[in-house]
Amino acid sequence: MEPPQETQTPPPSTVCTKCGGPTCLPTPPPPSSTPSYIPIRFPAVNLPTPPTNIKETIMRTPVPQSQKVEPITPPHTFTTPSKRIHSENDVARFNSLPSFHNFLGFVVSLSESIRSRKLSDPCHVSPAVETLSSILRSLADYVDEIPPAPQSARYGNISYRAWHERMSSEAESFMLKLLPPYFRDASVELVPYFTDSFGNSSRIDYGTGHETNFAAWLYCLARLGIVREEDYPALVSRVFVKYLDLMRKLQLTYSLEPAGSHGVWGLDDYHFLPFIFGSSQLIDHKYMKPKSIHNEDILENFSKEYLYLSCIIFVKKVKKGLFAEHSPMLDDISGVPSWNKVNSGLLKMYKVEVLGKVPIMQHFLFGSIIKWDGTEGSEVVSCTSLQHCHQ
């Protein structure tokens, strides 16, 4: 008796018996070796949704509130700042410290200072703000004097290291332009925050951790009384705008790699704070809503006045393809009904996704200005005595 013969299933028909149309899609082409937009760390199409627990954590996080900066009074002993965060437990401890809440409260205060204001609106510009602007202009000039080296690599032009070395060599002299005689020793603490604000020269990269260092540097200047609350609008509209322009120039000139990108579920490959400040600018705007970012005429006509719109234009400049595919988070935010909700949501997201992440905060520095041991209260003085010290 012969063994039963195996029956083979006929291949599925590729033509419908009813309408004669094709029933199978053609084999997709192999993935392109050249991505359709730059910069990119992960493909932006057909991604799973972001982790639910992160979304829930952000939703349940209280909206950060503004705080007055706690001033330092001379005499004061400054120390070289060092890294203290190495684990989740360290991040949790930092999040419980007065220094954390005061720093985050400073960022919120900067955001509130620019609320419903255009970048060109008049504001108080102190000598300190003028000096800060001058420092950033000098750094931008260095880029023009140090052209990118000819190389085929897509990321990481080695000439950036020459720019970074020059910036670092001038850092102390920049600090001394800002510091009064009784705080000159503070340069040992300010220089590391300053030099870490512009990216990493070894990896030739830049990200939200470096941007946070720039905010920390401004916070240290506020604690030293060099910039005051009346300077906050100018710190955003004059100083931070120049910093953002400089970083975009560095990114495009030297092809900086995004540092620890969140992939497409981050706001941007490099920045976070301009979205916070920019959304605050647009609160209660009569005509522009979050969905207005999809209107090309609005972007073109108002991007020079509103940081959020300038960020959208820059993202569209460096990334090609459908906006919803390469920037799904920004696309989702455009569906939020009001800028006030966008701003509060971004502040919560900054606290959780930037200040609450070990890969970012492991590089953050702690010294005598931003303390690790949580004893800031002993250094609080009244405005009257601080003003007396400055006279």
Automatic annotation (TrEMBL):
Which GO CC annotations does the UniProt entry carry?
Answer: cytoplasm
Keyword terms? Cytoplasm, Isomerase, Rotamase
Q: Which Pfam families match?
A: PTPA
Which CDD domains does the entry mention? PTPA
- Entry's Gene3D superfamilies? 1.20.120.1150
Catalysed transformations (reactions)? [protein]-peptidylproline (omega=180) = [protein]-peptidylproline (omega=0)
Composition bias, kind Pro residues: at what positions?
A: 1-13
Main location per UniProt?
A: cytoplasm
Q: Tell me its EC number(s), please.
A: 5.2.1.8
One example GO MF annotation? peptidyl-prolyl cis-trans isomerase activity
User: Where is region (Disordered) located?
Assistant: 1-32
Q: What class of enzyme is it?
A: isomerase
Subcellular location(s) of the protein: Cytoplasm
Q: What does this protein do?
A: PPIases accelerate the folding of proteins. It catalyzes the cis-trans isomerization of proline imidic peptide bonds in oligopeptides.
User: What family is it from?
Assistant: Belongs to the PTPA-type PPIase family.
Q: What is this protein called?
A: Serine/threonine-protein phosphatase 2A activator
Organism field = Penstemon smallii
